Amino acid sequence: MLLNLLNGKSKSVASAAVLVGFFALLSRILGLLRDRILAGRFGAGDELDVYYAAFRLPDLVFNLFIFGSISVAFIPIFLETYRSDKQRGWETASRTLNFLLFSLIFISALLILAAPILIDKFIAPGFDPSKKAEVVAMSRILFLSPLFLGLSSFLTALLQTFRRFLITSLAPIMYNIGIIIGALFLVDFFGIYGLAWGVVLGAFLNFLIQLPAIREFGFKFRPRLDFWVPEVKKILRLMIPRTLGLATFQINSIVITAIISTLKAGSLTIFSFADNLQSLPVGIIGVAFSTAVFPALVGAAAKKQLNVFKDRFSATFRQIVFFTLPSAFLFFLLRDQIVYLVLRTGQFSRLDGRLTAAILGVFCFGVLTQGLSPLIAKSFYALQNTKTPAVIGAVSVGVNVVLAVLFIYLFSFGNLLSDFLADVFGLRSAGDFRIIALPVAVAVSSLFNTSLLLKFLSSRLGGFGYGEIASPVYKMLIASAAMAAGVYPLLYVLTAVMGEETFLAAFIQGFSAAVAGAAIYFLVAKLFRLREADAILRRLKNIF
């Protein structure tokens, strides 16, 4: 019975998005708990800097060969083959998995051997020798995780092909549970390396929870090396541009880590915490909707139903903006309260919190574009075009790296931009706050990336009705501004009365402002007769 429930099929894009979004929210909440435990136990210092730097090489392997590439390249070809010949479809799946496992093991082995040189010269050149040695040791443990995450991602792609989103949405939750176990218990036995073993445990649980569900469809894995068949070749041809595109993003991550390693201790930890917080609306909204609509886009593209494709894209685009835009406004206004509630405990100091809140505030300017980019990119993938997003992504990463280096230099001395940000975020007494230059670069490059993707997709589709998108988006912007105008005075009064240095005060301020903001936004959206607001109202009526 439990398996039948977990293996339930989502009947529509909206229901799938709600399901994915709900469990993404649950996973993110666990992620926040994970970060709170890490912040309280270790603070922003050398130990967590080592932990986050150690992820770079294992993440490189996973992201290049598995993440994104599997779903965007495998799903269209598998569906095409499966619909014509089920047995051939399952053989294609098995051969693809064999190739991926072989590649993962081979590349991981090479990088494990090369880890000391790569970390010394490229990943963390600014760390001292003992810190670099710890990064190497932890990286070698973490190289076990891409193997399990690779298997898990492959199962996720298969299950989502059949619109089984519930079980795949539970997998990331198990991953965070493993990390939390590592932070709470394993560090007592293995020291800081207990965090790495927690990651490996989480990756294994991520894979294990999906295994029973895939057996229901009749998939049987057969270890073999004869994977060089036409279907796998076609998948690889689609993967190569996507992999190259992901390579540029991984290079970007490595360069950013290298830059941060030259700043004061704890900078990488603070940046990582702020990045995790700003990814909440991106993951819960942008990734959830794009994941849910992707099979429908693939189906419309396969059947040459261009109008259906455009309608699906436009509707999902508006839905993402409807939820992401006000979230970005609220996150900016509530940045101090959010950081206090999530991170201000134990070893995490007030200054650490102030810097994290400032970085989060700057990140908010790129939340909308980051939330939209997965949908636009997956629209290209549904059309079996992985080259365009890869090229645009490479150019955008180049822009980000150049801007990051430029802004770090500019923030080394007083100028109009650094002085403005220091005053807005109260960083005059923070000492070295050059770290805030990096989210500025991320926000600008994200706008550049999403704008180019949208322009090229419009050209590819012969336009998709800008009027259908632009007019509602303008109304959503006005509604978000009205929400901010109403929330700010309330937040100002609550902060003046209660202060902001207790957990209870931060919770009351954040909760009150969020509820008031949601009410104002929804009211203005209803006045503008936005269909997304009407859809929410209909769903609430059906529930109650």
UniProtKB/TrEMBL annotation:
User: Per its UniProt record, what Pfam families does this chain match?
Assistant: MurJ
Topology in the lipid bilayer: Multi-pass membrane protein
Subcellular location(s) per record: Cell membrane
Q: Does the keyword Phosphoprotein apply?
A: no
BP GO annotations: cell wall organization; lipid translocation; peptidoglycan biosynthetic process; regulation of cell shape
Q: Where are the transmembrane segments?
A: 12-33, 60-79, 99-119, 139-158, 165-186, 192-214, 235-260, 280-300, 320-343, 355-377, 389-413, 433-457, 477-497, 503-524
Q: InterPro entries recorded for this chain?
A: Lipid_II_flippase_MurJ/MviN, MurJ
What would be an example GO MF term here? lipid-linked peptidoglycan transporter activity
The record's CDD domains line, in alphabetical order, gives:
MATE_MurJ_like
> Any one cellular component term from GO for this entry?
plasma membrane
Q: What is its main location?
A: membrane
Its annotated pathway reads: Cell wall biogenesis; peptidoglycan biosynthesis
Keywords noted in UniProt: Cell membrane, Cell shape, Cell wall biogenesis/degradation, Membrane, Peptidoglycan synthesis, Transmembrane, Transmembrane helix, Transport
- Describe the function of this protein: Involved in peptidoglycan biosynthesis. Transports lipid-linked peptidoglycan precursors from the inner to the outer leaflet of the cytoplasmic membrane.
Q: Which HAMAP family has this protein been placed in?
A: MurJ_MviN (MF_02078)
What family, per the record? Belongs to the MurJ/MviN family.
Q: What is this protein called?
A: Probable lipid II flippase MurJ
Instruction: Say which species the protein is native to.
Output: Candidatus Azambacteria bacterium GW2011_GWC1_46_13
Q: Which gene encodes it?
A: murJ
